[in-house]
Amino acid sequence: MADSKQLILVDGSSYLFRAFHALPPLVSSKGQPTGAVKGVINMIRSLIKNNPHSNIAIVFDAKGKTFRSDIYQEYKAHRPPMPDELRSQIEPIHKIIAAMGLPLLVIEKVEADDVIGTLSIQATALGIDTLISTGDKDLAQLVNKNVTLMNTMTNELLDIDGVEKKFGVGPGRIVDYLALMGDKSDNIPGVPSVGPKTAVKWLLEYDSMTGVIENAEKIGGKVGERLRENIDLLKLSYELATIKLDVELDFKISDLAHAEANPQQLFELFAEMEFKSWVSELEKSGVKADPAVNSGRGNSDAGVTQSETPSAAALQAAPDTIEYTCIASVDALDTLLRDIDSRQFVSISIETMASHFLDGRILGVALSVEAGKAFYIPVSHQSENCPQQLTLETLLAALKPMLENASIVKPGYDLKHICHLLQNHDIEFQAIKSDVLLASYVLNSVASRHKLSDIARYYLDVGTQDLAELLGKGRNKLSPDAVAIDKFSDYAAEKADLVLRLSRFLEAQLALTGHLAGLYKYYELPLIKVLQTMERNGIRVDEKSLAQQSEELGQQLEVLQGAVYELAGEEFNLGSPKQLQTILYEKLELPILKKTKTGQASTAEPVLQELAEAYELPKLILQYRSLSKLKSTYTDKLPLEIHAVTGRIHSSFQQAVAATGRLSSTDPNLQNIPIRTAAGRRVRQAFICDPGYKLLAADYSQVELRIMAHLSQDPGLLNAFSNDQDVHKATAADVFNVPLDQVSAAQRRSAKAINFGLIYGMSAFGLANQLKISRGDAQRYVDRYFEKYPGVRKYMDETQALADEKGFVETIFGRRLYLPDIHAGNGMLRKAAQRTAINAPMQGSAADIIKRAMIDIDHWLAMAELDARMLLQVHDELVFEVREADLDLLAAGVKFRMSSAAALDVPLIVDIGVGDNWDQAH
């Protein structure tokens, strides 16, 4: 191997765990987990593509204990056993790497890090540049003028300067740094309470770990005591964190050149794993299946009957044939319905002209009974050369028995919308058992992945027809009903086909993790009907009140605008950031607190809020923006959202949008109406009930803090909530060291900011800004808080460590939130992901709890003889409309079901409010 050729050493074990934990699960039709295989090989293929002239070797940890376990029995002892679904993927990965012609290195009694370290030293001695691809920060100690580190997840490159910038110390002090901090993932003890900042501070002051030990008596406070008490553990930690650089290897650097890849073996391995696109890639290069080898691609599967259990059988492998048929006769429809009845299975997709769910005009219905075979029945198309169509009445009359037959499994995409469309025609869709949208969402709630086309591309590796292309652009753009019927029929039938294939595939993935399957089956699917009913109920608004508010807001905006112009000394467009920037920073010469990415002085709201503390003009601008948004978003717009027939506003509640599991409200969004301002509360006053009825609002009290107490098991928090104390007052008493009965209102406000700020990952800097105190005081508050509530600190540290290791966090109920930016090279993105890691389990658990409560309450209302209905869900609050005579029964029933929706180690408290409008009830 020529000395000039770069060597890339891949930490295969790091790749393996990142791929397994950070990507949604995949399973072949034989039940073999394949997600980690695909992830690892995809990363290696990308590495080869981006570095075509480098030699690449893949290094994995060997089975069994290493020499570090001999030194310290607790080393990695707390790690759970490798999951079976991951262990089963190691051999296929090794086989594929070997078939790719890449050196595969697995050395007994040492870790992959030690092999990589030894090889990097040998390469440096030969003057060979080395790139180490890993997600493990420990390997930063290997960086030198010839060795660079590349992050597995972000492709961030770290040279000597990069290591120092990232960690605060250079490569030569990384072992000291790791020893002082310890490493939770490897169970390296370190010095208790020493984090990155303290470790860097000591190393900058005392040069090395040895220097820190020599000066231990000079270091004050509790952290100094802990250092002095743990000198032996610190020395042990140093030994454990040091990468071995002299592993005995029976090969040389020159042996790491690539061998020729074996395309036939790769074809068979990719086919076995059902990686269709890679198989297709090899086929295009001339590789063909060996007839003697069962490639695992199989035949297209027939429909699932009641006696069959859906498995992954459908599915990454494409069906052998595609057959999409347009049905335009009663006889053909009858034949299809008999087939459906015999199978007891059919997927459904309904095409509509875009409009409100209460008014959707049905263009046709697509059905599929087996992979690759689907039908479209048009009813309202108006394109040229359109064949004779069935009438909508004829079609729905024929479909109604099947649609209302709960024993026939009917997968769909967004079944809530389908239920609305059918209920508009007096058809009650039964039963809700399979929704591709929600299955995808439960598997991986990270946004932007849940369009049907995106789900098909990700899981089935299938591209889909784009409606936008069928419609065209500009002056010649068509409406959906005017597209040529043969093209539209194929487009619609394909959707039903993909729904069928994806429903089986995704539910097979969910079945691999019982907790996710449980969330899907017992939370998300039952919630569909609850939300659909709530959406159809709608809520009444007072148009006259909103009109009056709009007029008054308009007058206030005019006054504010005049005041702004007077202070500015000229008129300008208040909605223009550029013009405002000129006024604030050039004309008035206000201090520039922050710049945009393009280097311009920022006029963002947080900047204006800070400026408003000292200057009147930014304060008026903020008031103007707030009132202007309220007027344009609510008082002007809400009357336009009133349905012509019902006289009510019917918001849509989306299940598959918020990554944490929270519901979101759209068209209009009723969850963001301000409640802390008088103007915002006036908007809520316009939400009213029918005569003879009341609005009842039921709101969880401090639910996320209660979940924090449950998750952290901190004795102080558990005691406060279990004894029904005012938790903010209790926190103030602890943090400010005063008796509970002497806590001032200001101290309680500060404690409240700390309680809520910390669960949202707020730093001392953020707390200082919020409380308008110095950063030093804020840090002291935070330090005192964690001294009083050490369980919270422990929970936060362990959660961040798990998030860093796994790439996701989980709620109490097992809902999984992936954190793609947890290893981002961009510090702001990475810190935001770390804050999310702390808060998401609480916010997500709260979302799960209220969903469970909604399902229970809906079931109870259906059985109880109450004149009451659920209207809205706003984060931790439910809003009902109830006849006055039934008010007490509803209040008692709702409170009981909400407070018993989860079994936490602290009580769930529900506050009930009643009024003639939403503001009064809240």
The chain-level structural class is: alpha/beta
CATH T-level fold name of the largest domain:
Rossmann fold
The tally of domains stands at 4
Counting DSSP H or I runs of 4 or more residues, the number of helices is 36
> Which architecture of the largest domain per CATH?
3-Layer(aba) Sandwich
Q: Helical proportion?
A: 40-55%
Strand order of the largest sheet: 3-2-1-4-5-6
Distance between the ends: 74 Å
Note the main sheet. 6 strands, mixed
Strand content: 5-15%
Radius of gyration (CA) equals 31 Å
Quick take:
The protein has 922 residues and is an alpha/beta fold. The chain has 4 domains: 250 residues, 5'-nuclease (Rossmann fold, 3-Layer(aba) Sandwich), CATH 3.40.50.1010; 190 residues, 2-Layer Sandwich (Nucleotidyltransferase, domain 5); 194 residues, 2-Layer Sandwich (Alpha-Beta Plaits), CATH 3.30.70.370; 55 residues, no CATH class. A 6-stranded mixed sheet has the order 3-2-1-4-5-6.
Characterization of this structure:
By secondary structure, the chain is of the alpha/beta class. It is built from 36 helices and 20 strands.
Topology (SSEs and partners):
Blueprint: E1 7-11, H1 12-22, H2 35-50, E2 55-60, H3 67-71, H4 84-99, E3 104-106, H5 112-125, E4 130-134, E5 147-151, E6 157-158, H6 160-167, H7 174-181, H8 196-206, H9 209-214, H10 221-229, H11 231-241, H12 263-273, H13 276-284, E7 323-326, H14 330-343, E8 347-353, E9 361-370, E10 373-378, H15 392-403, H16 415-423, H17 436-443, H18 452-460, H19 467-471, H20 485-512, H21 514-537, E11 540-541, H22 543-568, H23 577-587, H24 605-612, H25 616-635, E12 652-654, E13 664-666, H26 678-685, E14 687-688, E15 693-700, H27 703-712, H28 715-722, H29 727-735, H30 745-759, H31 764-771, H32 775-788, H33 790-806, E16 808-810, E17 816-818, H34 827-863, E18 868-874, E19 877-883, H35 887-899, E20 910-915, H36 918-921
Parallel strand pairs: 1-2, 1-4, 2-3, 4-5, 7-10
Antiparallel strand pairs: 5-6, 8-9, 9-10, 11-14, 12-13, 15-19, 15-20, 16-17, 18-19
Helix pairs in contact: 1-2, 2-4, 4-12, 7-8, 7-11, 12-13, 14-15, 16-21, 17-20, 17-21, 18-20, 20-21, 21-34, 22-25, 24-25, 27-28, 27-33, 27-34, 29-30, 30-31, 31-32, 32-33, 34-35
